[in-house]
Design brief:
This protein is of the alpha+beta class. It is 38% helix and 20% strand. The termini are far apart.
């Protein structure tokens, strides 16, 4: 193994992010989704054949196509900017001036180092400076940025930066608590551990405001 391969393995095994932006090539969308599916299908066939699997078996023969469609249409659909949620906002006519918290947003993402699932919860908050977004918009933003090969730190930052842009305020925060199957099912194989990341903007950098937010997300909500 070369020094460069050792370095790449170290980045992957330690789950290190290299950028706050998803590393996409300029030509990432020069071909259609259907073309991508056909190319990925052939690549998956090659992997399964290399592993020695019999792709004439009824259980396996459709797997390359299923995986290719899943990659393009589902779990990596958030790579395509055309799928970004619309950014409509509304005047805060009822003058609600306290923080708004949307907690326990389900996160399903994929670790970009091993292409294994990241599963957890995101807690997102903002303080309005005159505009608000619909509650479901926060969930959709989390889902959009989660549906791509990710690093949890980057995902947390991207959610905050997008809401700051949409709302026109720095007063946005996000905490994510998630399990990484690349840690839980391989490598150290620690099935109990989870990873917590946070990003605080504007007023949330102040201890009092940050503590209020963290206290809210600890509430045991039951219905």
């Amino acid at each position: 193994m070369t020094l460069n391969e050792d370095f790449q393995d170290e980045i992957g095994n330690d789950h290190i992010a290299t950028s706050a932006q998803t590393p996409l090539r300029d030509d990432a969308f020069n071909i259609s989704d259907d073309e991508k599916i056909e190319l990925i299908k052939k690549d998956v066939e090659s992997i399964l054949n290399t592993l020695g699997l019999d792709l004439t078996d009824d259980s396996l023969k459709g797997t390359p196509n299923r995986v290719a469609k899943m990659f393009v249409k589902e779990i990596f659909g958030g790579l395509n900017p055309s799928k970004k949620p619309g950014s409509s906002t509304f005047d805060n006519k009822y003058k609600y001036g306290e923080m708004l918290v949307e907690k326990n947003i389900v996160v399903y993402s994929t670790c970009e180092h091993h292409l294994l699932p990241i599963v957890g919860r995101a807690h997102v908050a903002y303080i309005s400076n005159g505009t608000v977004v619909g509650l479901s918009k926060m969930n959709r933003i989390v889902d959009y940025f989660a549906k791509r090969p990710q690093v949890q730190e980057r995902l947390t930052i991207q959610i905050v930066q997008e809401l700051q842009k949409v709302l026109g305020t720095e007063d946005v925060a996000c905490v994510i608590d998630a399990k990484h199957l690349c840690v839980n099912s391989r490598g150290i194989r620690d099935i109990e551990s989870s990873t917590v990341t946070s990003e605080f903007g504007g007023q949330f950098k102040e201890e009092k405001v940050r503590r209020e937010f963290l206290d809210y997300i600890k509430l045991d909500t039951q219905f």
